[in-house]
Task: structure prediction
Amino acid sequence: MVGSVVIIVLTILLAVFAPLICSINGQDPYTYHLDELDKSGVPLHNSTFNHWFGVEPLTGRDLFAIVVFGARTSLLIGFGATVFALLLGSLVGVIAGFVGGKLDTFLSRSTDLVLLFPELIFMIALRSLIPDWFPRELLMILVIGAFGWGAIARVVRSQTLVLANEGFILSSRVLGAKKFYTILRHLLPNLMSTIVIFGAISIPGKIGSEAALSFLGVGISAPTPSWGRSIADAVQWINVDALYLVYPGLALFLITFAFNMLGDFLNKKYDPRRL
Amino acid sequence: MKRKIAKKVLSVLTIVSFLPISLTACGSQTNAKELHILVESSKVQLDPAKSQNLANTTLGLVLRRLTTWDIKNDGSETKVVPDLATDTGTPFENGKSWKYTLKDGIKFENGKQITTKDIKWGIERSFADELSGGLTYHKTLLVGGNTYKGPFSGKELDSIETPDDKTIIFHLERPFGDWPWIVSQPAFSPVPSGEKNVQTYGEHPVASGPYKVESYELGNKLVLVKNDNWSNDNVRVGEVPKIVYEMNQNQDIATDRLIQDAGIDQYTFSNSFVSTAKLPQIQKNEQASKRLVTSKTGSLAYLALNVKSPSLSNLAVRKALQYAVDKNAYRVASGGEIAGDFATTLITPGIEGRENFDLYKSDPSGNVDKAKEILKEAGIEPSSITLKLITASSSAGQTTAQAIQQGIERTGIKVDIVSLDTESLDKAQTGDDPTAYDITLLSWQPDYPSANGNIQPLFATSEIGGGNYNLSRYSNPDVDQKITQAQSEIDPVKAGKLWATLDKEILEDAPVVPLIYKTTTWLPGSKVKNFYIGQFPSYPNYLKVTVE
Result:
């Protein structure tokens, strides 16, 4: 638990201060160092004083800088998509649970649809429809978020159904409070812990989606570093330069692992069913 | 990710499953007398009307044409030589008409004599809509070719005359000096006159070359065996009794098999060259690296500058880019030194008439100061320019595009990379929309070794959009007129001079940045003999390959 928090905090610091950290040894993830490569484009050294993780094959770009800047992409899209999904999912869940009736049926079926949708294929297809000038990061946040709200909507809906019959909600309504006011004032505060825990649980999935899309070559545009793209490139070099795969792979593993542990911990500790 | 891992597992299984065969292969020599060729696609196209094969690959083993290519291993230029015809053609009317006479004793696999009627039928059927996909040079050159729709409705193409069984005469729209090369293309191979099958003819064509089809299983295996009725051929060897094509072979797995070189794989080669990432792996492997065969030269890899784009319509910007581009980074991204020499001309080495020159002399890494200076003199602020670079979403497409981006951005010009899947990329590059990109990358290997093939398809006004490859969208009436003039010249030496002048004239307008002459590297099994690549094309000469 402490370990996963440390990893998460460290990664966030790494992402926020990426340029500063890389400037320690004067590196950035964009500059080519062709003199660090042999005549067939393979790095000459695994690790040097200037390049702590060595360099990337075929380009000679600093691998440490690529991994550190890659954390920015991962976290930005991971967090962004999670927040978007939470907003969307909570909204749908609360309305479905509280209003009920035909609207509930419609929203619940929509939720099922989103949960069952082959999202990866759709994301790839969608990409070719969006014009180039649309910011790639925002697009990925919207797309991953738009397909990731199903589970949260379900949980929030069921929580809402339970809460809606609680005394304080019923009293509020009997006293003539508007639905909107009741949702905002009484329902949401009580749903907050569920939403936050769910957020923590779903972050690694969103980070994974970003990596998967980049791995498939439809993620963030090059040369902005992304772990998924680095992993895709490195797979081809596994026989020659295995370390190229290890660094971005390990980074992706650690951050998703840490968030999973945190989510599990929060889930056990603040299980809404035990509140 | 899962897919890639699955492939790796598969490759291990393949190697294991081939072990027992390797033992038997060592025991008896008779088993070994066959050659295996690994093909990535699920189909081997043997219909001459649909095929775009070079004269020295698969189709050349089964079908002969009027002329063919003599590819030598001694560094001499590839020549066009007679195949079914007795010579490479007699021009008359200044090269507007060409006459060919067939050799004696040439037969189909069924023993029937090959006549000029069969050649004519082969050409005519290539005009049919249901048989599209082949090379189109002859379709625009032959008189009436633009409106002709094939022989199946009973109509003949009158510009092909066959006064007797041995003579065939072609009438062209205009003089064309490279006609002897055109008649070496697949459509000029004989198809029995009257043959109406268009659906499956490509699986069992009637052979005229050293091999005939024994069996064809789509997506799996094609087996070629010796054709006893083949004779009177100076170009093909036809020594191997049996050639087996294995289809649907993943390129990386194929490379792994060839590196291992076990059992039947010793008698095997792949029809695709070794990928950039696999090269270092082979170079580190002593027994495999000895087998590597690299072409001496190859296709021209270049950066096309779209002259119709607002920022690139200015000659000064295009000239600045000649110095800004980092050719060295591009070459490293393509695999380093082995990927080829730095390019400065449009006509590739090994082509008749080529002159070597460098209009924009600089270090291979570029000359950033010079580029900035040119922009400054023209009064252009580099940061005001953003170029859209479209590239393939494949890993090779990404790395090479980034190498270009990195070079140009040193001047302050911004480059946005947009990656597209192969089909969308092709559509954007060759489509009619001039705003689809500012710059893009391409490698161009001509269909036949003539400077015409280097220049006309890439720079003639008629080749802009509509599926054609003038990616710079370059249009210069003077150049167009000189292209026609050079095409009409029947004396190869004079034509060569004209093309060399054009090469320079076009590059002065800087519509492209030549990057490297991209070589290809191949890995044949250890028992494959006489596997070599001539001056042109950068593909091995299948016609001479034998096994130990």
Summary: Chain B is about 30% helix and 20% strand.
